[in-house]
Amino acid sequence: MGRYVLKRLLHLIPVLIGVMLLAFLLNEIAPGDPAALLAGGESATPEKIAQIRAELKLDDPFILRFGDYVKKLVTEGNIGVSYKTQQPVAAEVAHRYPQTLKMAAISAVLASIIGIALGIISAIKQYSFIDNIISMFSLLGVCMPVFWSSLLLILFFSINLKWLPSSGFSTWRHWILPCAVIGTSMAASIVRMTRSSMLEVIRQDYIRTARAKGQVERVVISKHALKNALIPVVTNIGMHFGVLLGGAVIIETIFVIPGIGKYITDAIKNRDYPVVQGSVMVLALTNSFVNLGVDLLYAAIDPRIRSQYRNMGKMKMKKKKAALPLGREAV
Amino acid sequence: MRTNETTKFLEVKNLVIHYETDNGVVEAVNNISFKMNRGETLSLVGETGAGKTTTALGLLNLVPNPPGRIIDGEILLNGENLLKMSPHQMQKIRGSKITMIFQDPMTSLNPIETVGDQISEVIRLHNKVSRAEAAQLACDMLEKVGIPAERYGDYPHQFSGGMKQRVVIAIALACDPELLISDEPTSALDVTIQAQVLDTMWQLKKELKTSMLMITHDLGVVAETSDNVAVMYAGEIVEYGTLRQVFKDTKHPYTQALFDSLPDINKNVQRLIPIKGLTPDPSSLPNYCSFYDRCKKRMEECKKTDPASVDVGDGHLVKCLLFASERSSHE
Ligand SMILES: Nc1ncnc2c1ncn2[C@@H]1O[C@H](COP(=O)(O)OP(=O)(O)OP(=O)(O)O)[C@@H](O)[C@H]1O
Ligand SMILES: [Mg+2]
Q1: pTM above 0.80, yes or no
Q2: Which of A79, A92, A83 has its CA nearest to residue A34?
Q3: What is the Cα–Cα distance from B29 to B232, expressed in whole angstroms?
Q4: Residues B116 and B152 sit within 8 Å (Cβ to Cβ)
Q5: Number of neighbours of residue B278 by Cβ within 10 angstroms
Q6: Mutation test of the interface with chain B: which of A126, A206, A230, choosing the one with the most B Cβ atoms within 10 A?
Q7: Percentage helix, strand, coil, to 5, in chain B?
Q8: For the segment B322-331, what is each residue's pLDDT rounded down to a tens digit?
């Protein structure tokens, strides 16, 4: 198991290099000139632009700039310096990322709890009135675009009822609306996932076996059915969390929350490429860790996955032993 | 026929079970009645779809609902009607007094629980023992079915089909049941291990003096093990009697056809005679004898009525017009 985690961590290196290269390339081919924007847009003189280009080393060949970037990243841990503010991206990310993470984490936790609970109820009361209600709302939740539901909620709770602030992030009350928006759309998808997974599992023979043992229905559902049904749901939640971090852009823009999503969109507008570059790397890294977490959780629930991981380790050992001339005694 | 004899061990009266699906009502079990003495082995034989599994699930009140429903009938265990029991009372019976070995061992164990835990679960449900004692008993049970106790902590995917079925047998026999239902426990297994698994089950059954309802396709196994035999066709018991009565004094044309379709080493028959035609669709059974369409001895009258079960002597029951005149109706 430890071996597996180590392997996964090593896998992060090529992934990050790939992400880095892609982000760099995208910035390269994106239209617009950062120097022109920095020099003052339309009114800038060509001399001024040329000067800024030279300062930012924008005229160097691609490979040189990329090499420089990687060097700084490896030796100084520097993920970039903003063209616009000349401040290190890492500092700004460290300042902003917690807002995004906080929003995503609160939403994800609430959505998981509510989504799984409603999904179970919906499944064990299949076709009942309550199931119909839950199914209807979850379908609605999945279909509603977040920008639309955000506007609806702001209209209702901030403008009409004046209960909650419509933007900002200073008190917990500011977090309610954005988290509600993200949470409902995520919960809706978790409900649907849990329901169908649960319905699938309840029909399995081993559930009948559990009942045939004389197990009480509550335990049949919570111990035998739910644990099995959660396997695909956990994967789904993990995937959602990644999408959530990237997709925080919309919510942060609507609710004016200075998170990483807002940071990236602003940077794109300003052609502030190092910022995009650095932030995307941070997001990729987080996503990789979330995925690793999900896979480990997956293994914690499902012994079949566990032994697969273990076998991966063993196969390596076997290969190594086989490479030795007297490696035959390997079991 | 209401003599005050001692209460029978098991008495099934006029059991009717339907599956109410979107495509109509499947009449899986139609008005069957049978009795069992303590310690007796009763075989239930019949083609696929005859309603054998449904009957067995009915005894445990585990017919999947929806779509299944026990429409009518009584199931008396030691004189107590199981169908009138509360869910709680029924849970006490399942796994301790009546247990079942299911058709497909591949799917009847929970994939994410250790086999040991799955055995000790049933022990803990029906005995006042500590967790450790239950684990010890489960280990004993594993040894009894021929699996080393060290494998307590292994998961189902680490076992072969035959070993999984041994685990299922261990679960079924862990609480020393009064009635063991075995539903074609080896039909999903390799021919080579079928005999071993059956043998294990049989040894334990004898040791514990358990009564057994054995569902099987294999008339050879029936001949070796049963006291009484019930032949099922389209949800009805068409012939019932002692092993000798049914095998040596076969009356019903369907039973006869079953024997003719099997290889018999004693008689040097050149060709086997398959039963022509298909089993009738249980969602649209005729209102006359359901074997009529395939029967070699059918008569004009057979299409007019649904025959009643008739005692042709010493409790040998046959549901066929050919024998209607021999004795008075059974019911
Ligand atoms: N869940 C269900 N929904 C609808 N119909 C069902 C269901 N389970 C069984 N049936 C139908 O009920 C009838 C009896 O099925 P059952 O499983 O009892 O047969 P069986 O005698 O055990 O057959 P086999 O030898 O194949 O196991 C069949 O026609 C089958 O299609
Ligand atoms: Mg069956």
Answers
A1: yes
A2: A83
A3: 9
A4: yes
A5: 10
A6: A206
A7: 35, 25, 45
A8: 887 654 444 4
